[in-house]
Amino acid sequence: MKSVLVIGSGGRCHAIVDALHRSPSVGKIYCAQGNPGIAQLAEPVPCKETDIETLRDWAIEKHIDLTVVGPEVPLAMGIVDEFRKAGLAIFGHTKSATRIESSKSFAKVVMQKAGVLTAAYRPFTDYDEALQYVVSRPLPAVIKYDGLAAGKGVVVAGTIEEAKAALQDMLANNTFGSDKVIIEDYLEGPEFSLMCFVSGRQVVAMPPAQDHKRAFDNDKGPNTGGMGAYTPLPFITKEDEQFAIEHIIQPVADLMADEGCPLSGVLYGGLMKTKDGIKVIEFNARFGDPETEVVLPLLESDIYPMLYNVATGGELPSLSWSKKAALGVVLASKGYPGHYDKGAVITGAESFEGIIYHMGTKQENGQLLTAGGRVMMAVAVADSIVEAHRQVYGQLPQIHCPNLFYRNDIAHQALDRTQQPVILDGKLMSQQIKEELHRQVEQLTNAGNRAPALAVILVGENPASKTYVNGKIKACAATGIQSHLVALPESATEQELLQHIETLNQDSTIDGILVQLPLPKHINPDNVINAIAPEKDVDAFHPLNVAELWNGKPGLVPCTPQGIMYMLKSENIQLDGKVAVVVGRSNIVGKPIAKLLLDQNATVIMAHSHTKDLESITRMADILVVAVGKKHCIGPQHVKQGAVVIDVGINRDTDGKLYGDVDYEKVRPLASYITPVPGGVGPMTIAMLLENTLQCYKQRNNIK
Ligand code: AMP
Ligand code: GLY
């Protein structure tokens, strides 16, 4: 059994150690310095990755059979040269070959000589000359620091101001310690990473993967070391892959051999599929991070012979890879890639079903703490990207830490367009309904009829109630329905309110009556609802209307459930045979929507926010209706991939903003249809109120 030393400490090294751990050839694994995750598989060696001589002496003393270098810094310092001088087998490029990564201008020259396509560029050392060049070229300008910068030395400047700031940083302020940049043309297209084992002229490719460099969703925010990755890539064909190997990786390997600095490690092509073909964005001289964390879990072959033969110039074996998909999401410290705090406690990671690769963590007094910018990566291997995506995002809410964030859209380029949810735009739909109602009301009044009329009763000063009442009155105005506001003081007695209702019941010019809920505590809402004449009960809360609904001959249907059914119908969402879960059991939403869904042959499950193991029940839902009035009580862990998600909740938080019962941002990537808050169900409820008013009017006046 072989003993192996891995040098490095992040998620990439954890994945390499993991692959070595699966190798039948490997016995003891050491890692310098490792991290708490790696320490479960390898014995930690307390020596810095840059302390080359100590590492070399240690490897000799321990009779290490193979050393594997993870990060670029020791490679660029010449660790491979030192080890080989001492007769040790080491996987990684020599200092001179590592220039393919450590010097952008060297890489550009290699590409030119090898005839490999890349963006046109110019090198600069002088701020003024560089700026002049930027001004003379079309924007955006891509400004790259000419050295190692942990993936953060590239600025895509969309404006001259941004270019100035970047040049100032890289040339005038010397942020990274050198004084050279290259400025290159901006390329467009999907990016992918092709990592290959290369030994001299021999090349063996790994499956292509895609990284997500920007810090925030929708590829916004600063460049980072990488926020997530996945493989396979549906937009990269076998032919693309073959082209990249034959026309990019192979010629570069050959040229490096010709130039006397043969490769002996991983050549990482950061590639872009532009409309003019596949071009090189950058080369790296090592495994990519976080690509390695999704690629190596798919390796079915023994990794040891490959690493050893690359290190020693032997013949490279072929590798077999699982056909499955892998997707990983990086959990990073808030503030990363800028300033961030360390030492926040992480809990729940141990129960993640999948792989957790540690990046920057620390174990202290039995607790797992954050100890870096990128902290850990949660990876799932599954039959498809969609399934891997669901597995990771479904479980991330179980990992708790006050100082972590992650991107919600890893693999967005792969998740088929049809997987992007349709946003059920209640505002737009209700607008169309109102226009149609307006036409109908106009026809009626043109024919000499009086306009339909709705009486709205408001008791007291509740600000939310006032807002709702105003909205309803405005909606009436937009459709030509007359509205009569009856505003009573908070002190009004139940008796007074009931008298007002009775008067309106008798008034033949009033078609609909609604009482805005909630009512002051001294008034019993049941008595009030019971007092409204059933044929004027536009909210359909009266026991007679409720009974008719449940008896299957509804006259008036409550507005919110009716609005939801309207949305489902107008999107042609199939209900027959589907599982609908209704969370919330109120008389005005939960129960009636359950009945209406049942009428459409859906199987309906009713639950509430305290239902035991709610997650496993809501995850059965093809159609999930949530009406509990509790901000974000439904997260991605509750939702099955492809579900229709209807959010009835409107919660105003202390920040004054409106939130739904569903954590919209996190749930959206899983849903096939989803209602936003505000702008989803709310406007539909009002539109149905107007529909009901017109219906009452027609019935009372015998108009078809
Ligand atoms: P690099 O560190 O060279 O991989 O660059 C970081 C990121 O900047 C890349 O992943 C691209 O998204 C972007 N980038 C770099 N060069 C270009 C280019 N010439 N055109 C467009 N985007 C680029
Ligand atoms: N994933 C980008 C890199 O490893 O540089």
Query: Care to count the β-strands?
Result: 35
Total helical elements: 22
Relative helix content: 25-40%
pLDDT averaged residue by residue: 94
- Report low-confidence residues grouped into runs of 5 or more: none
| Hetero groups | adenosine monophosphate, glycine
**What percentage of the residues does DSSP assign to strands (E)?**
15-25%
SSE inventory with pairings:
Layout: E1 2-8, H1 11-21, E2 26-33, E3 43-44, H2 52-61, E4 66-69, H3 72-77, H4 79-85, E5 90-91, H5 95-102, H6 104-114, E6 121-124, H7 127-136, E7 141-145, E8 154-157, H8 160-172, E9 181-184, E10 191-199, E11 202-205, E12 210-211, E13 214-216, E14 220-223, E15 228-231, H9 238-258, E16 264-274, E17 277-284, H10 291-295, H11 303-312, E18 325-333, E19 345-346, E20 355-358, E21 361-364, E22 367-370, E23 374-382, H12 385-395, E24 404-405, E25 422-423, H13 426-446, E26 453-459, H14 463-479, E27 482-488, H15 494-506, E28 512-515, H16 525-531, H17 543-551, H18 559-570, E29 579-583, H19 590-599, E30 603-607, H20 614-618, E31 623-626, E32 644-647, E33 651-652, E34 658-659, H21 664-667, E35 673-674, H22 681-700
Parallel strand pairs: 1-2, 1-4, 2-3, 4-5, 25-35, 26-27, 26-28, 29-30, 29-31, 31-32, 32-35
Antiparallel strand pairs: 6-9, 7-8, 7-9, 10-11, 10-16, 12-15, 13-14, 15-18, 16-17, 18-23, 18-24, 19-22, 20-23, 21-22, 33-34
Helix pairs in contact: 5-6, 6-9, 7-8, 13-22, 14-22, 18-19, 18-22
The protein binds adenosine monophosphate and glycine.
